[in-house]
């Protein structure tokens, strides 16, 4: 699992680049909600490409392991996001609001994708 822990860090870099693109580009041409929705979808695509590469290059031993990898990646992501958000002075209410799908916030799809993508790519790429 150490290898998959280390392979999570490039996802953090992808997320930072994606967030910078949103702040520097999407928000100029749309409102904040739409910019975040576009950013969520683009991050899912970037993560999907990266996760497919990782699973192909370092295939898990089983379906169960692929789900475990996804759970670890989700927990690392949520831990970083909430930890960094709290460190920056955001309240729990502010942080949780990003997951409120009833308000059009799609960020909930990111942790779901992180859990499912390793399993899906393991199933698709298995030879």
From TrEMBL:
Query: What residue ranges are annotated as transmembrane?
Result: 37-55, 67-86, 106-125
Swiss-Prot/TrEMBL keywords: Membrane, Transmembrane, Transmembrane helix
Q: Does the keyword Transmembrane helix apply?
A: yes
Highest rank taxon of the organism: Bacteria
Q: What is this protein called?
A: Uncharacterized protein
Q: Which organism is it from?
A: Flavobacterium sangjuense
